[in-house]
Amino acid sequence: MTSKDIKILMYKVLIRPVLTCASETWTLSKINERQLSLFERKVLRCIFGAKQENGTWQKRYNYELYETFNDPNIVNYIKVKRLAWAGHLVRTNDRTFKKILNTKPDGVRSVGRPKLQ
Prior knowledge:
Layout: H1 3-19, H2 30-48, E1 51-53, E2 56-58, H3 62-69, H4 74-91, H5 95-102
Antiparallel strand pairs: 1-2
């Protein structure tokens, strides 16, 4: 194994699971998706480094990083984990989860700010 392979393995085994801990329950906004992608690209740039063309060093473009990494990006990884978790919830035999999952709230919420107690 080369040092790049070891660094990629360390990213997949150590950094990514810590970063996506309990991500199945997150509500991802565009800002959060952008920040996660930015962090992943920073890590990948540290792993793969710059490339040399015609005697000059140049940063890799984002598409080059993802082509070289050859794995789904962090946002897609989180979305797949969320779908898998939803599948587990649907297949579970626990009545509490089924009740929460199939509940349709009734009633009308009043307009305006809630009154303070």
